C-alpha cells in the first residue's frame, strides 16, 4: 500500500476502532488484577514501517534482554524484515513478517498474527511506533496483558484510545533512541508514571557492530570487479542518491549529487564511486551516474542483495546519503557517513554508532514532519534540502578525506 493510503486508513478506521477496543478491553479487564511489574518472559516489539528504526531500537532491545531476562520477539512488515538480520538480536524464528501489499493480505496476516502471538505465549508488547492506531490495535490483539507504548498524556490529538496499559510520554526533544530506552525502563519498573523520569545518558547508548565474514567481503569485491574490471587498490566512495517513498522530500537534488561526484573523482584519482540503490531505483541512480559521466562512477543499483550491503559498507571508506535506511544500516560498521537532513532532524534521527555526521540547515520550519502529523508534509519548494549547497557538502567531504587519507590530491 502507498504511504498516504496507510495514513488514511490509520486515521479514519483507526480512531473508531481504537475507541471500540478501549471499551471492550475495559470490560474484559475490569475484574482482573494487574500485576505490579510486567511479566517480561516473552516480550514482543512492534515496529512495522521503518527499517532504520529497527536498528536504532537495538540498544533498547539488548537492554531488556540483559536486565529483564526476556526472550525477544518482533513484528515488522515483511518487506522490512531483513533489517533485523543485520545484528541478529532477534532470532529469525521469533520474527513475524506482515505483508502490506494491500488491505486484504494485511487482514489475513493480522489473523495469523493473533494465532502466532498465542503460540509464542506473548506476555508483554512494546509498541515502538509513534502513535500508530494500527499498531495499538495489534498490541490488543496480541493477547498480552502488558502493553507499553507512547502516549500523548496531556498533549492534544494523537488519539489511539486506552489500549496501552503502560503509556510513556513521548518526548519530541530528545533522540528517538532515548525514547525507546524509556519504554524499556518502564517495562523494568524504573518509574511508575507516564513520565520517564529515570535518567538516560545519550552518549552512553552504544550500537553493536555487525559481525562480518571475510568471505562475504570477498564476494562483494568480486561483484565490484565484475562491474569495474580495472579495480585495484582504489578506495570506495558510496553515493546513496535516493530515499524511500515514505518521505520523498528527503531527497537531495540529483544534479548536486552529480556535482559532488564529478569534483571528487577529478580531485582523487585513487578512488572510485559506487552509486547504490534498490533494483527499482536503477533509472533514478543512472540519471545521476550519467551526469557524473566518468568511468570510475558505476551504477550498482540492484547489483547487491540486502545481505551484501553491510559487507559492502565494511570495505568502503566513505558514504554520502540522504536521510534514509542505508545511513542506519551503515551504522553497524565503521564506515564514515555524511547524512543529508531536511524535513527531519538529526537531533532525533541521527544514526547511532558514532560514524555518522549530519548535514543540516536547521531552518525555523525544520523539522516539518513529526509524530503529530504522521510524518506528512506538503512542502514542495523544500528549502531545507535545496538550500544545502554542493560547496557545503564538498567542504565536509574534503576535510574528512584530507585528515584521514594521506594521499589526497587537491585540484589546482
UniProtKB/TrEMBL annotation:
Known EC number: 2.4.-.-
UniProt-recorded Gene Ontology molecular function terms: glycosyltransferase activity
Keyword Glycosyltransferase: yes
Enzyme class: transferase
Domain of life: Bacteria
Entry keyword Membrane: yes
Membrane-spanning residues: 12-31
InterPro entries assigned: Glyco_trans_9, LPS_LOS_Heptosyltrfase
Keywords in alphabetical order: Glycosyltransferase, Membrane, Transferase, Transmembrane, Transmembrane helix
PANTHER family per record: TETRAACYLDISACCHARIDE 4'-KINASE-RELATED
UniProt protein name: Glycosyltransferase family 9 protein
